[in-house]
Amino acid sequence: MLKKTVLMFILTASQAFAQQAADSKADQRGSDKLDIKKLEQKYWAAKDDDFSVVQNRRYVKAERFYLTGAAGIPFNDPYSTGTIAGASLGYFFNERWGLEGTYNSASLKDNDAVKQFVDTYGVIPDHNVFKSSYFLSGIWVPFYAKMSVVDKAIIYFDMGISFGVGSLNYEITQFEGNVSKDTMAYKLGVFQQIFFSEHFAIRADLVNTWSTQEKMKYYAPGTNVGGTVVGGQRDLGSETINDTSLMIGITYWH
């Protein structure tokens, strides 16, 4: 009887020690787990909710001059077709803000609609022709990104907005010869440039300009209007004109 009692005591003690060892190992494994909530409470306070994206830039613009040569076409001129050539000189104070001076010169001619109008009716529609412009613009660049090209290369590009004020030269189309005029103009442009080295980038601009231009109606000498023979020109007042152009060019960064 005594032997059985001692044997049962030994078995019970062995089970207790085994269970205690198993619990100890479980606690040890649990202590190895990372408590995310404790880390959040310790390192991520409510005041840290406002943060900025940190991104390495391979090609920087801050405190650098640049020169752009570009060519393009008018986008919304209902009377003219041709090309526009331009140059821009600018400087960036930091990665976001810059200043730019731009000169554009146009080589435009009557489009097919105007030619058909002339051939059919023998007169030219009343319209003005854009010739050149000067603008001084402020530049803001809110977007900068990297893009993979078929997993072979990474290109770096940014997108910005420019707003400028300047002077625009245009011609009033007349039967006896065009008349050149200058007027104040405003510019709003959206551009994107793709860098392919430290000093060179491809740049595309979509440029909108607004200007108040004089309008004139004229007739060829001897034209019969309502039973009256008229000639010369007639002032039609002024009108706000919106010109849109697409320019593509190469930028050199110094």
UniProtKB/TrEMBL annotation:
SUPFAM superfamilies: OMPA-like. Residues 1-18 form the signal peptide. Residues 63-211 form the Outer membrane protein beta-barrel domain. The keyword Methyltransferase does not apply. InterPro entries: Beta-barrel_OMP (IPR027385), OMP/PagP_B-barrel (IPR011250), OMP_myx_plus_Proteobacteria (IPR030820). Transmembrane segments: none annotated. Keywords: Signal. It holds the Pfam family OMP_b-brl. NCBIfam families: OMP_myx_plus. This is Outer membrane protein beta-barrel domain-containing protein. It comes from Bdellovibrio bacteriovorus (strain ATCC 15356 / DSM 50701 / NCIMB 9529 / HD100).
